[in-house]
Amino acid sequence: MRIIDLSSPIDAAAYEPDPVRHEVLSPREGALHMSSEMREHFGIEFDPDILPDGEFLSLDRLSLTSHTGTHVDAPSHYGSRAGYGTGVPRHIDQLPLEWFHRPGLVLNVAAEEPGVVGAAELEKEFARIGRTPQPQDIVLLRTGASAWAGTPRYFTDFVGLDGPAVHLLLDAGVRVIGTDAFSLDAPFTNILARWQSTGDRSVLWPAHFAGRDREYCQVERLANLESLPPYGFEVVCFPIRVAGAGAGWTRAVALLDD
């Protein structure tokens, strides 16, 4: 079995609209921190120089959003109310793990200009690869945007799905849709420009807002989709169990039999 990493890194040195703060305490600083904590909480005096090389353990402190790096959007991310079930959308820690280890399908939807991909384009891809999504398959969209990861262009130059395209996949029984782009919707600037020119509210984040009436998850900011065949592999993308959160990071991978 081959394991292909489909995850983009969380990197404080890369460009992010919401900057990542990453503070590293060295092993020496970790020793001083531990000594201070022992004194404050337990009244124990401990000289850190007793430790080998005067070092204890390193420690990383991070400040970031749950949508930084490769992550899974939960239904509660899409809105406070749901048009299905109890009317209360589930958080990331409440979703069944079975959704996130399923056969995968890659659709090439790359385009030269930012915008949306519709149901007709997806149907053409089904015909090209000779396969349609089966219930609970994980469908991955290869937009090519991952080539710009870590730069401002990554957040402005990509394609997303329109409403009918999302519903086409959900009608097939898909519960998880992934993309190598920043969002499953088109770029913010593209969405707002189309709305301003048409006044059509249906162009406003249709992929996300579809989740208010139909329960499903998105995996955004994937990578290495070009390394995958159209199908014949499994996707594993278990989300981190953040209580009450609308998203959780994931180390997404594909499993291929050699």
Which shape, going by the Cα principal axes? elongated
- Calculate the terminal CA-CA distance, rounded to whole Å: 5 Å
Q: What is the total number of structural domains? A: 2
Which CATH class of the largest domain applies here? Alpha Beta
Rg: 21 Å
Q: Under the CATH scheme, which architecture of the largest domain would be assigned?
A: 3-Layer(bba) Sandwich
SS-based class = alpha/beta
Report the β-strand fraction as a percent range: 15-25%
For the biggest sheet, the summary is: 9 strands, mixed
Number of strands: 13
Pfam families: Cyclase (PF04199)
InterPro entries: KFase/CYL, KFase_sf
GO molecular function: arylformamidase activity
Organism: Micromonospora arborensis
Summarize the structure.
This protein is of the alpha/beta class.
Descriptive terms for the model:
258 residues; Glucose Oxidase, domain 1; 2 domains; two-stranded antiparallel ribbon; 5 helices; 22% strand; KFase/CYL
Account of the 3D structure:
- This protein folds into 2 domains: 3-10 and 65-256, Glucose Oxidase, domain 1 (3-Layer(bba) Sandwich); 21-63, no CATH class.
- Helix content is 20%, strand content 22%.
- It has helices at residues 27-42, 119-129, 163-171, 188-198, 206-209, and strands at 2-5, 21-25, 59-63, 71-73, 101-108, 115-117, 138-142, 159-161, 176-179, 217-220, 231-236, 247-249, 253-256.
- This is Cyclase.
- It comes from Micromonospora arborensis.
- One of its GO terms (molecular function) is arylformamidase activity.
